[in-house]
Structures are given as C-alpha cells and as structure tokens.
UniProtKB/TrEMBL annotation:
Protein name: Glycine betaine/proline transport system substrate-binding protein
GO cellular component: ATP-binding cassette (ABC) transporter complex
Record's keyword terms, sorted: Cell membrane, Membrane, Signal, Transport
PROSITE patterns listed in its UniProt record: PROKAR_LIPOPROTEIN
Domain ABC-type glycine betaine transport system substrate-binding: 49-192, 212-312
Protein's cellular compartments: Cell membrane
Gene3D superfamilies: Dipeptide-binding Protein, Domain 3, Glycine betaine-binding periplasmic protein, domain 2
Bilayer-crossing regions: none
Lineage, broadest ranks: Bacteria, Bacillati, Bacillota, Bacilli, Bacillales
Length: 315
C-alpha cells in the first residue's frame, strides 16, 4: 500500500470515529434534554387539588354551626358546584386530617379556632373567603336566662366576669389530647396554675353555700374546656355546678326557656346566629368570654391553595 492510500485510509477511519462519537454524544444530549424537559414539565404541572380530594370537604357533626355555614358556602360559591360536605364527627375529621398530614396528602376540612389541632399542626391555614360567608373573627359569648341576676346574683356576676383567651382554651384541649387525661382534669389543673386570672373572675363575688347552677354546653372539646374551667372556678366560691352537654340548638332553647341558668358556648355574630335569633328576646347577652374565634375551610400549608375561589367545580 502506497503512502497516499495509507493517508486516505487514516483520514476515512478518523472521520468515521468522529461521526460515531458525535452521534453518540448527540443521543445522550437528546436523552438528557428529554429527561430535563420531562422533569420540568412534571414540576410545572399544577396539581388539581379539587380532584385529589374528590370534591369533598371533610366536616364534623350535622347541625354544628360550622356545618350549617359550610353548607351555605357550597351554595354561595359557584365554583363549589357539585362539592360534597362529608359529615360525621369531630373525631373522624381530626383522624382524617392526621392521616393526610402524616402522608402529606391533600385534604380540605372544616376548621375553627380555638381547637387543639392548630397547636399540634401550626402550619394549618384558612382559605380566604372573599364572599364573607364565614364572617370575620368571632366571639364566644355568655348568655344567661331571664331572671338569673335576681335569683342568683353572685352566679350572674361570676359568669359575667368570666373571660379568657384563645391560647388558654387551646392549651387545655391540646394537653388533654397529648396526655390522654380527661378535659375536666386538665381544666382543674389549669385553674390551679392560673389563679391570677381566675381571681379576676371571682372579684366581688360573695361566697355561697351549695347554690346550684346549671350550664348548657355543646359536647365539643372547646366548650367542654370552657365550661369545665368555669365550673371549677365557681366551685371556689361554693357553687354546685352542673354542665349539661346537648346539641347546639338545644343549648339556645334551654337558656331561652329558662331550663338552665346560662351558657358560655354561643359563637356570634355568625356561627350560631340562626339559633340566637330565635331566643334573643328571651336571654340576657353578657357579651364575649373569648374574642378572636374563627371558623372556615382549612388546609395544610403544603396544599397550594389560598382561597375558596381556587377550588374547581366538580365535573
């Protein structure tokens, strides 16, 4: 083979090797680009949270104030057309929330403050409510039967002076949940540890000897906490207090009819307004015992929604 032929063969071989290497590199680059595009497309693809939760809001007991208000919200917001409110119990709602958060899965629940779930899960958030169906921050108010001030003036005075904070109530609920102790027991410890605040409620109240007082309350942990605390504080002045748990409609009826002395479980001006309007002329409104209560639709922080209007109608 002459020198020219050898030279040509070398050039041809080198060119072929370069072409093969170039093609391989191109394929790898194309694969990398494809993978990169797939990853980008995947990360940019919005999650349809409405579809993920099957167009369902996980709620609590039928007839509860927040249940009634959420039913109104479903009617008021056009984008909630076809949505369902799953009604069961507070315990079932919290269990579902706990499981979802543990697995970082989407969930939408009815929520309210005070409640221990906000102490356990500080990253929970309320969805904005542009139509104002759930109202602004609310108060929990004390209502007394007509004639209580005349019949039992010291009981009336103490109930009227009872006032505490959202954090107080939530601390009792959370401790009960974490320790497994009954709310009544935790409430007694809270009263012992917060005598400075309790003394303000007792100021000017005379000691009595076994005067009976009956309070109507709902069976929810928030109201169990407040009623237990008030009952324990009243016992320091000699009152014999009975707390009767009933559904929310019966709470207002009982006070309005004079069947019980008072309740400290009225969420106003919105949540229990329908019940309040029926008895407002038959009760004495003592004003707020807790300010800054709130209700609404709640999601974990990792659910990328900010407003009720971000939800999509069921197909």
């Amino acid at each position: 083979m002459n020198l020219f032929t050898k030279k040509n063969l070398f050039v041809i071989t080198l060119t072929a090797l370069l072409l093969v290497a170039g093609c391989g590199s191109g394929e790898e680059n194309n694969e990398e680009n494809t993978d990169s595009n797939n990853e980008t497309n995947g990360s940019d693809e919005a999650i349809n949270y409405s579809e993920e939760v099957e167009y369902t809001i996980t709620g609590i007991e039928p007839g509860a104030g927040i249940t009634v208000t959420t039913e109104k919200a479903i009617e008021e917001y056009e984008n909630l057309n076809g949505w369902q409110l799953e009604q069961s119990s507070t315990a079932a709602m919290v269990t579902a929330l706990d499981e979802a958060i543990s697995n970082e899965e989407p969930i939408i629940v009815t929520g309210w403050n005070p409640h221990w779930k906000f102490a356990k899960y500080p990253d929970l958030k309320y969805l904005d409510d542009p139509k104002g169906v759930y109202g602004e921050a609310e108060n929990i108010q004390s209502l007394a039967r007509q004639g209580l001030k005349e019949d039992k003036p010291n009981a009336y005075k103490l109930i009227d002076q009872f006032e505490w904070d959202v954090e107080d109530m939530e601390s009792i609920m959370y401790e009960s949940k974490e320790t497994g102790d009954d709310i009544d027991e935790v409430a007694k410890r809270w009263v012992e540890d917060n005598q400075e605040k309790v003394s303000q409620w007792l100021e000017g109240v005379e000691d009595v000897d076994g005067v009976e007082v009956e309070l109507a309350s709902t069976p929810w942990d928030s109201e169990r906490a407040s009623s237990s605390v008030l009952a324990e504080a009243m016992s320091q002045k000699g009152f014999d207090v009975t707390v009767t748990p009933v559904d929310v409609a019966a709470v207002f009826e009982a006070v309005g009819n004079g069947d019980v002395d008072a309740t400290i479980a009225a969420w106003l001006p919105l949540t229990h307004n329908d019940f309040y309007q029926k008895v407002k002329d038959d009760v004495v409104d003592l004003g707020p015992n807790l300010q800054g209560a709130k209700i609404g639709i709640v999601v974990p922080e990792y659910v990328d929604l900010e407003s009720i209007e971000d939800l999509e109608p069921a197909e």
